[in-house]
Structures are given as C-alpha cells and as structure tokens.
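re: ur question from earlier - yeah i can do the single chain one, its not a big deal. heres the input i used so u can compare w yours
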Amino acid sequence: MTSPWFDNQTHHIYGHGITMIYGGTRGGISTYTTDPVTTLAWRSLPEIVKAIESEEDISKEQKEGKIAILKEDSPGGIFYLYITRYSENEATTNNYYVRIADKNDNTLWKGRLPFQSPNLPIENGWWNFIEVPIPAEVEPPFFIHVNPNYGQIDYEFGFKIDEK
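and the output i got, formated as tokens:
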C-alpha cells in the first residue's frame, strides 16, 4: 500500500477488490514515485470478529469485550487509510472528510476523521495510517470517498470496494 495507485487500478487486499475510481497519480507513470499516496483497505465486521476469535494471546473475556465494542461501533467493519503528503498539516487525519456510499452512491455515513498526528517524514514527506470504524452497515459493492477539504462537494479520492 505504499505506492500511488492509478485510476481504475484494482488491488486485492484482505480478499476484497479495491479499485481507485478517481484521484490516482496525476502525472501517470512519470510521477509514480513522487506523487502523494492515498491507499485504502477494508475488512467486514464478520472478518474482524473471526480474526479476534482466532487470537491465542488474549482471554475469552477480552475477546468478548473487543467483539462487543466492535459490534456497537463498527457494524460496517473498519477501513484502513494510508496517506503520504508533502507537509505535516496535509498528513494530519482530522483534515480529511470521508463519505461512505452504497452501490448507487447514496450516502450511508459521512464525517471528519479523528485527529491523529502524522509520522516523521519519509523520502518525499509525512505519512499517516489510521483505522476507521464504519458506524453504518455496508454491503459490497460500496464506495469510500476521501477529501482533504472538509465539507466540499467533490472528493479528491474515490474507492470502490467489491465482494470477495
């Protein structure tokens, strides 16, 4: 997930096809190693629950507690966002607005990401990775739109999440 994606390029992460539908590398292959990176992955609630249940280093009570919190906070699962940006401010997560939409692009949830400081610069800039609970139920295929300008109509990056 550390290289820029191109529009209409599909990656298979956690078994799901994730296609960047817009917002890919602006300069094509010539800027592949210098453009900011925005990549995304998603896991459904049942997939996460199964992973927790298979953990061997925590007690049954701890597993049940984690699962109860997930069921309450994340009925749509969790999406994982990785970004690199040229400035620290651009890589701070609360500068991003997200909209989750169904297969017909009807909004299921929208909101601003919580604050998380970016990590120290690498090569061309700062980076951040955040796990975001989805508080609405979703069924693939669905869309995740990511915009660094809270509240604007057009979204800088759009991803389609497909079934396994």
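The radius of gyration is 16 Å. not sure if urs matches, ping me
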